[in-house]
Design brief:
five-stranded antiparallel beta sheet; peptidoglycan synthesis; five-stranded mixed beta sheet; Beta-lactamase; transmembrane; protease; cell shape; about 35% helix
């Protein structure tokens, strides 16, 4: 800048003029406008903050809670199932279910490989599953792991991997009680057996709690309990686990020995109707379901109905004794060992000739039973069976129970009346059969069956007189001492029983070489404590009669059972009496 320019600038400042044309002064009103806008904006912002914090703080609280506060479900502990002595049959144990948020999971193959190895899964399979669920926020990694392996997975601290505590059902007796107790599914709801029948009672009611979580979904702290979990109720069964083990062992040995298709055993308390043991084969292990055979799921004692055959003869005989036309010593001519009724040939295994009614039971004479049935009113035997609730549900509420069938007696032919007297033409399950026999062991009063432990004998209903019941016990004793049930005898105990061998029905009628071997035993005969029904389905080989296949099972099971139940002998042993 030269001297002339400096002089001009100095003069301009003294006179209040701009030094140049681009140095004009900013208007005051514009500055005030800008400051006013800033002040108003700040006032609005401060006012909004005060309003939200003081007058409408619930909004901010709700927005914050929606991101950090969660309501978690608290699983209810499923009730325990135990035997009559308190031995556990089904218990719940704590487990951990691992789940993940696929959106949070890392994409690094190395971390996913570590995760897969810790889970015991193939890395490629796990990665493929994660890729298929990347647009979701939830997927299971592994259900119901034991706590220690699950902890090892969580300790990897992989983003998006979480754990939840649950309960898993464990069955201490395994396959010995599986069809009766049943099992639960992956969500711990009853799926089979009593687990299904009493699912609502066993399940309980889940609880809820409000918790604070961080942005990764990890629990920071419990805030408060909304509702406590209410554990499920406990169920005490009527069975004795000791008797169940005993029955399972002996039944399995017999099914294996005779290469049978299946087997069933029911032991019932003679004076209460409580089921003390209930076994079906084949069975399955509910703790390892990887190779469960569907055939093993059936509790055949209740789900399978079958023609019982000659084990019905004592029950049918009660109609003859009650009528007054027949007594245990009433003579009956069964010669020549066969007869034709309505064009249908009825046979005995041989010609037994002259028998009394006791002998008809002793030798299981179809001819003797037919003569008795045809001498009674048309519906006499049907009325006895119907009064015993055959063909009706047992009332146990067991899933899939078969009620059996008892056809109406109207317009029955003589042949139908005859076959009904020796156990053909109707069907029932093993529990129904055992329950019917409580009428004989309980002075003529039949008791309803029970799978739950009772505090006393339930109220029954009378189906025959006490005199008839006592006579039938004595008649059935001869089956063991002089008839085909000798292999059911017990050392030191009097036994009453009845054998039965039934031809199985096929697509074209009764089969020539397929049988069901049955036996019903009562012990001790002087004061009955147990009734045992045994049914072996389709034994292979030369031995298929009930007295040869099923009766020995009774001898091995009932003898030990009476000793376990502390029932005193009612007969001197052969060694003590000097007999042979």
């Amino acid at each position: 800048m030269n001297d002339e320019q400096r002089r001009v600038g100095s003069n301009a400042r003294r006179e209040g003029r701009p030094a140049s044309s681009h140095m004009a002064a900013t208007p005051v009103w514009r500055l005030r406008l800008v400051l006013g806008i800033i002040f108003i904006a700040m006032a609005v912002l401060v006012g909004r903050i005060v309003y939200l914090q003081v007058f409408d703080h619930q909004f901010l609280q709700g927005q914050g809670d929606s991101r950090t506060v969660r309501v978690q479900s608290i699983d209810a502990h499923r009730g325990m199932i135990s035997d009559r002595d308190g031995e556990p049959l089904a218990v719940s144990t704590p487990v951990v279910t691992l789940w993940a948020n696929p959106r949070q999971l890392p994409t690094d193959p190395l971390q996913l490989t570590r995760l897969a190895e810790a889970l015991g899964q193939r890395p490629a399979a796990l990665m493929a599953r994660i890729d298929d669920n990347r647009d979701r926020e939830f997927m299971y990694l592994e259900r119901r792991m034991t706590p220690e392996p699950a902890r090892r997975v969580l300790d990897l601290d992989i983003a998006g991997v979480y754990g939840r505590r649950e309960y898993k059902r464990y069955y201490p007796a395994g396959e010995v009680t599986s069809q009766l107790v049943g099992m639960t599914n992956i969500d711990d709801h009853g799926q089979e057996g009593l687990e299904l029948a009493y699912d609502n009672y066993l399940s309980g009611v889940p609880g809820q709690r409000r918790v604070l979580q961080d942005r990764k979904g990890q629990l920071v702290r419990d805030l408060h309990l909304i509702r406590e979990a209410r554990p499920g109720g406990n169920v005490t069964l009527s069975i004795s686990l000791r008797l169940q083990y005993l029955a399972y062992r002996e039944l399995k040995a017999t099914v294996t020995e005779h290469n049978a298709d299946s087997g069933t055993l029911v032991m019932m308390d003679a004076h209460t109707g409580e089921v003390l043991a209930m076994v079906s084969l084949p069975s399955y292990n509910p703790n390892n379901r990887a190779s469960v055979d569907p055939a093993g799921l059936r509790n055949r004692a209740l789900t399978d109905a079958f023609e019982p055959g000659s084990v019905m003869k004592p029950l049918a005989m009660s109609a003859g004794l009650e009528s007054g036309k027949f007594a245990p010593d009433t003579p009956m001519d069964t010669s020549p060992g066969w007869m034709v009724v309505d064009g249908y040939t009825i046979k005995d295994v041989r010609n037994f000739g002259q028998l009394d009614m006791t002998g008809v039971i002793t030798h299981s004479s179809n001819i003797g039973m037919t003569h008795m049935a045809l001498a009674l009113p048309d519906d006499a035997i049907w009325n006895v069976y119907d009064s015993m609730k055959l063909g009706h549900p047992t009332g146990l509420g067991f899933p899939g129970e078969a009620s059996g069938s008892l056809p109406s007696p109207w317009d029955w032919s003589k042949a139908k009346r005859a076959t009904l007297s020796y156990g053909y033409g109707l069907s029932l399950n093993a529990v129904q059969l055992a329950s019917a026999y409580t009428a004989i062991t309980n002075d003529g009063v039949q008791l309803p069956p029970s799978l739950l432990k009772l505090n006393g004998a339930p109220e029954g209903h009378r189906v025959m007189s006490a005199k008839t019941a006592h006579e039938l016990i004595e008649m059935m004793e001869t089956v063991i001492t002089r008839g085909g049930g000798s292999r059911a005898a017990l050392e030191g105990y009097r036994v009453a029983g009845k054998t039965g061998t039934v031809r199985k029905v096929g697509s074209s009628g009764y089969q020539e070489a397929a049988y069901r071997s049955n036996f019903v035993g009562i012990a001790p005969a002087s004061d009955p404590r147990i009734i045992t029904v045994i049914s072996i389905d389709n034994p292979k080989g030369s031995q298929y009669y009930g007295g040869l296949v099923a009766a020995p099972v009774f001898s091995r099971v009932a003898g030990n059972a009476l000793r376990l139940l502390d029932v005193p002998p009612d007969q001197q042993s052969t060694e003590e009496s000097g007999g042979s």
